[in-house]
Structure formats: structure tokens, C-alpha cells
Amino acid sequence: MSLVPCHVAVIHFFHYLHLLAVFRSAVGLFLHDLYIIWGNQPGATCPAVWNEISTTLTAQFLADGQCTDAARAAIRGAFHDCFNGACDGSLILANECTNTENRGLERLCTQLGGLATEKQVGVADLIQFAAAHAIKTCPGGPTVPVKVGRKDSSTANALGVLPAHNAAGGDLVKLFASKGFSPIDLAALIGAHTAAKQRTTDPSKAGAALDSTVGTWDNKYYQETKSGKGAPFTLEADKNIAQNPLTTVPFSTFAASKSAWDFAFVSAMTKMSMLGVDSKDLIDCTSALPGGSSKREIKGANLFDRLKW
Fold it and tell me: Which residues participate directly in catalysis (predicted)?
């Protein structure tokens, strides 16, 4: 009798235990992050103006049942405003959109800057609200909690901090770790490329999507990046994350389970939106998002049901 099936079963069993340990750790980090970000905050009501802004953004972010290029720019813009230093609105207020690393965000900066002035809201807050709105607007997108009350800054952040399109996996792990993100966070955040297009990495293929269903928020990005098949275009850095020893397990898990990815992504994106931000006296405006939940609903949700374990 062949022992191969038994051997394979043992391998799968230990692989399962590894995945379970990884995501138990993720659950712990998620709860800790929620406590830090949402805990001990005054129960102020979200200003009505954010519901007005939400209506305006929906018209820009959804067309023919799919998320638009404007939605893609909003998601990218949130990362570019935060990762260089802090989520402080300097992407717009310090005219960072003219920097080479921010090419393709010029129109977003103009539109959000004008909307912030019109509605008399903070630019930093609007950038993060727009990203959370865009994620939720994309069919299948999760609700990322969003708060308002950040301090705006017109001081430009440092150049050269954003990751390169061809960065090595190990370098990306170190870069994100320097900002407080785990390898699981990195693998989860890169999944936002499910709704992304490249325009400058290969100008001859400008507008090529990074997965085959760019108008929806699904986990095909993980499946297609991992297999090397199906995506119109794949960034070298994304391939490197898929293959790096510290990120390959969560990457593969997200390819197999959208629920697991949504869970990890919400945790990591919430953390991203608070980089360099004093959480004191911020106001929860998650309810202003399309189908948004209050912080109590987010904290009280059954974690294992959400993960479908």
C-alpha cells in the first residue's frame, strides 16, 4: 500500500496549522488595533456634511455597476498621502501631486481639494474618507472604518519613501515594518491592486489592469498574481511579495479566501489611515459610507463568522 496519500495529508495538516496560527495572530492584532484606534473616544455624532460628500463621491466612483478610475485614484491617493510621513493632506496641500511618484493623481488632487473647500472639511480627512468610500463602492468591497478630525499640513513629506514597482520582497517587508505593518498587513494591503491599473511602469501598456476583474473587489488579483496567469499586467514587486517567505502564506490564503483577505485588509487599511495621526478627539464617520457600520457593530461582530472558519 502506498504511503504517499498519508504523507500528503500530513503536509496539508501542518500547512493548515500554520495558516491557523497566522490568522489567530491576525485576529489578535486586529482587536488590538481597534482598541487603540476606536477605544476611549467621545461619542460625538458625525457631521451631516459627510453624508452629502458621500452622495457626491458615489456618483464619481460607480458606473455601470463597477468602480471607476476615480475610485482607483482615491484608494491610491490615501496610501500616497500617508506612507511618506503622515495622513495629513500634504498630498494636496503641499502640491505633492506634481511629484513623479504621484503621477496619475493630479485630477484626484484637484477634485478633492475643490470638494474640501466647497464643503469646508479637512483635506486629510477627505482623502481617507474618499478611499474608504471607493473601497466600499467597488462591488464586493468591505467597510473600512473612517474617522475625521485630522490636522492638515501644507509641509511636504519626504520623497523616495514610496515602494518602487520592482522592489524586492524582503525590502518591502522591511519598509512596511518600519511603519508598523506586519507581513500579513503588507500582503493584505497589496490586494488593493485588485482594483488597480498601471499607467507609468510600462507606458506602452498604459491602462492595463492588475487583475482580470478590475471593476470589482475580489481576490482574483491574488490568484492571478500567484499563478502568473490571467492578469493583463503584473508588477514585479507584486510577484516578489507573492513569493517572499514571510508573505507567501498569507498571500496564498487570500487567494483561497476572500473573507480572510477582507478581514486582514480592513485591519491593515484602518491602521494605514491613522499613520501619524493623534486619535484623540476624532469622530467616527463610518456611518456616512455606503452601507457603513458604527464602531460598535464593527467591534461586536462575530470574528469567526466573518472569517467563515
Answer: 80
